[in-house]
Amino acid sequence: MKLLTVLLAGVMAVTPAVADIIRIDTPSSSLVLDARKGKKLKHIHYGGPVSDDDVASLCDALGDGVTSYPDYGMLGPAETAVSAIMPDGNRSLDLRVDGVSAGDVDGGKVTTVTLRDTAYPFSVDINYLVYPGEDVIETWADINNLDKKNSIILTRFASGYLPVRYGDVWVSHLYGSAKNEARVECAPLGHGIRMIRNRDGVRNAHTSHSEVMISLDGKPSERNGRVIGAALCYSGNYKLMFNTDQSNWHHFIAGIDEDDSEYHLDPETTFTTPRLALTYSDRGLGGVSRSFHRWGRAHKLAHGDRQRKVLLNSWEGVYFKITEKGMADMMADIASMGGELFVMDDGWFGVEYPRDNAKAGLGDWMVDRRKLPHGIRGLLDTARRNGIDFGIWIEPEMVNTASRLYREHPDWVLKPANREPVYGRGGTQLVLDLCNPAVQDFVFNIVDTLMTSYPDIDYIKWDANMNIKNHGSQYLPSDRQSHLFIDYHRGFVSVLERIRAKYPDVTIQACASGGARANWGTLPWFDEFWVSDNTDALQRVYMQWGDSYFFPAMTMASHISASPNHQTQRRIPLKYRIDVAMSGRLGMEIQPRDMTDDEKAMCRRAIAEYKTVRHVIQSGDLYRLQSPYDDKGVASLLYVTPARDEAVFFWWKTRTFFADQLPRVTMDGLDPDRRYRVTELNRIDNKPLKSEGKVYTGRFLMDTGLEIPPGHDLDKPDRVSWASRVIRLQAL
Length: 732
Ligand code: DGJ
Known about the structure:
Layout: E1 3-6, E2 21-26, E3 29-34, E4 42-47, H1 52-62, E5 66-67, E6 82-85, E7 95-105, E8 108-117, E9 122-130, E10 136-145, E11 152-165, E12 170-177, E13 180-188, E14 192-198, E15 211-215, E16 227-233, E17 238-244, E18 249-256, E19 263-265, E20 269-272, E21 275-281, H2 284-300, E22 311-313, H3 315-318, H4 324-336, E23 341-344, H5 375-385, E24 389-394, E25 398-400, H6 404-408, E26 429-431, H7 437-453, E27 457-462, H8 484-502, E28 507-510, E29 528-530, H9 537-547, E30 556-561, H10 574-581, E31 585-589, H11 597-619, E32 621-626, E33 634-640, E34 646-653, E35 675-681, E36 695-697, H12 698-703, E37 724-731
Parallel strand pairs: 1-2, 22-23, 22-31, 23-24, 24-27, 27-28, 28-29, 29-30, 30-31
Antiparallel strand pairs: 2-3, 3-4, 4-5, 6-11, 7-8, 8-9, 9-10, 10-20, 10-21, 11-18, 11-19, 12-13, 12-15, 14-17, 15-16, 16-21, 17-18, 25-26, 32-33, 33-34, 34-37, 35-36, 35-37
Helix pairs in contact: 4-5, 7-8, 9-10
Bound molecules: (2R,3S,4R,5S)-2-(hydroxymethyl)piperidine-3,4,5-triol.
């Protein structure tokens, strides 16, 4: 067998015609496939880097190997990644390797294995994309109907299939609900099927997330062990499935959820699946997170190389009660605290049907002059006078029945024929039919009109507060209704492509009743996501911990809000609220008018200090040190620059027990031989920490760690609860 290696720098020339074994290497991993022409494509290895000798040994050990991207029909009861119904009703496929090619895609090197059916004009191109220096392999399938006359029906169309050797394998993933997003769940894989799916239709990260970590060495650890990370980059319905059967394998299949979504593929057309991003690390969950963060910032995320601004968002400050004076006051306040941006949330629009609450107005994106006599221009001028930027909220995929849009275009909403729709928020909300190109134009025009009228808008908060309750498109023909879920997201992406082509610079937040659009299939067009409508700082420790498994801090909108908290009613001191918000993209979600001068001064100082370290937090490597889920009474993490010359250490107490024994947290990711000076940020204590201003080696900080007192040195009785610390480390 010949060996075909795709090296990252593109050093090795590819000779497809003679390729039998394909090896796709990243700095810390290898994927090996057996691609003998005329045979089934076989999976040989995905894990740590292997040499040519190792490949030979792997082939010996595996014997026949496992079919990669298995097709339905001739493989018996095996799990399959693709199935189709041919024009004559034949439901079987028999795909064999036809060739291997290589090319350049999106700044990376792609290897494509073409599988062709032995009897029908049908082929599948399986793609593997690597970017120079990144430890992620993106894989996806292009499924081709080569028939010149007839359509076929796709009934299964996974993005990727990965066999994982049977063993003590654990899966960690995120699940949750609105206001309780991104909770970490972790369990061993037993026999049978474990399915992670989301069928919301519009958003897809409130409940289960489309990313998993697969720990190969038993119970997951942050710092050690072999872990595979898999992230399905898709904004719509998905299904991630593990089938642990009687074989030597846990079969992992990930892709669009095919239920109620069989897809008719017209003659001579291609169905391209979303990408599945895979990464491997022998440095535990943390290693996988760092790979995803680096790859995401460099190749996926909108403006992954740009630092995010500190902002105030109006929602929890005024809710729907938008007034010109209220907005002006908030702008003056955030400017005085050193913020850089103000975002006006819901409630600013609707003329015939004013948006005074959630029941009316969506779809009518005209300023309500009763509330804002000088319109958006007036607000932009006020922002400029305050030396800050201005952003605005929209929910462009939705409509209320109480709107001019609905009156004029009732045919633009998703609903099945012959039925009254089921309504969402406010009892009147419906989802617009993004399968319809006229609706796509309408949604594009919402942004286009705003941006052409007010080119100085700096930021858009793009919200989405309803799922697809009504399966029915008034645009799609009756025999294509099963395309609804997929075509909705194709429409969504096509609108975003148009927006980004015309407005590449504007910052856009993906908000979806909170964190329901935290996904790598959404972030290419968005700069960040709103983590949750729950801004309680303690619960945010858990939620942001979860999101950090897959998403870097710069994507996590993390705001200081009021106490008692509006969602949990919990009272948490401002210091703690600041220290939690600072570990992501810092912002505020509060009515500054209700803050005391001392509180404002504290926020002013925190924002100033955040600015000195935000490059570390937003663009550094993350080391999760002590998990809140371990229930040790403390959670802690650290960001460090790639050069390891600066770090920021976060430490939050997660409970208050008398005489509690808190662990001393050891750091990670520092240079053992460098010496780091300690400076506490957001300090409130009368006396500084014993370590303040002192210098420690990276080795000491990683082997022993700083002793953090369990409380604060304050002149008030409660010195123990809600302790938290943010410590800056600077290499000498
Ligand atoms: C849901 C979002 O998550 C909130 O932040 C806020 O924008 C409201 N929608 C506005 O209706």
